[in-house]
Amino acid sequence: MRKILILSPGPFSKRDYDRFGIALLKKNFVVKILDFTAWIYPDFWKECLNTVYKCEEYKVIRNKNDFLEFNSHLGSVIVIDCLQQNRKTNWAKKQLRKKNSLFVRLDINLYKFEKVNVFRFLKKLINLIITPKEFLYSLFRFFEQNYYNGIKKTHPSDILVLGGLVSSDKSKFKNKIYAHCMDYDVYLDIKNKPKNNVSPYAVFLDEDMITHPDYSYLNYEVPVSEFQYYSILIKFLKKFETETGLQIKFAIHPKSCNTNLPNLLKDFDYSKGNTAELVKNSSAVLLHSSTSISYAILFKKPTIFLTSNELIKSWIRPRIDNFVKMTNSKLINMSEDLNKQLDLQSLLEINEVKYKNYLEQYLKVPNSPDIPLWEIFTKYIKSKQFEK
Known about the structure:
The protein is an alpha/beta fold. The protein has 19 helices and 13 strands. A 7-stranded parallel beta sheet has the order 3-2-1-4-5-6-7, covered by helices on one side. Strands 10-9-8-11-12-13 form a 6-stranded parallel beta sheet, with helices on both faces. Strand 9, helix 12 and strand 10 form a beta-alpha-beta unit.
């Protein structure tokens, strides 16, 4: 069997193991997973080391020699490239290309990028200038990303896996696999399971606004302060329960590192790792800008977007506004609307045209096979005789 090499986008987790369909791929390929986090982001690696899922296919790349040793025993492989572009990763990809490896680009977990707000950009720039160390670091990251995504960009991938019509650069690829996003696999797995006979409820999709691990290595600032955020959120969720009669179930973000949540959420039913099931059995979905909105779209659940005066001032505001526009859903400012009566009937309305468009643009290519993503991938590879 030919080898598949997955270049992990960050610290590899059990969730990644399932989303990348490792169990399914192993039936047809020899699978290896390379995690470059320790080499690219050594400080972040120390923070997340205990969360890594160390399966038998997994290998940590801590430095250049680690990769050279691994690559020395490697022939031509199929590379599922989820790495960002920078000096170290581009060098590693170049070594793999020397062995005539087949590169696969995943354009599947899609969402609409927000437009750059000039005033917010200038404000951030001013804040950086008055902190020289952060300014120089951000400037370095900016030029590095643009340099390696432009001038020094490695050879384009050989195969593009599309998860929606909005997928970019389609014309540049001869080999295209029409499929869907990773969340659609979860949807396929649970859509026909019987609905739990529980009282009607609404689910809140947490985004781990305070301790999200991706903020560190993506160089994102924490958008809100813990006290202000949870203070206003908890007040609103309690108001929502009282006025609508719907209990709130709090779906904790799968990457959440916030050890204070049991204290903050003591008055709510909260859980982790079952977001899709919670959405499927809910009457409504409350959120800010979580990409798990995909489950609400797939299960045709009403979406109610929440913001606050603090969130409006942060980088996350355009993302919330984008989702509201794409779904034509209601937006509530928790800071300003605490004293306004909620109209549940209005909140539960769904714009089916907008939902269908979101599905086709971002979640599933129309008429693509209704089977697991990695089964679609395997069939394509075999049919085109890419296996050697």
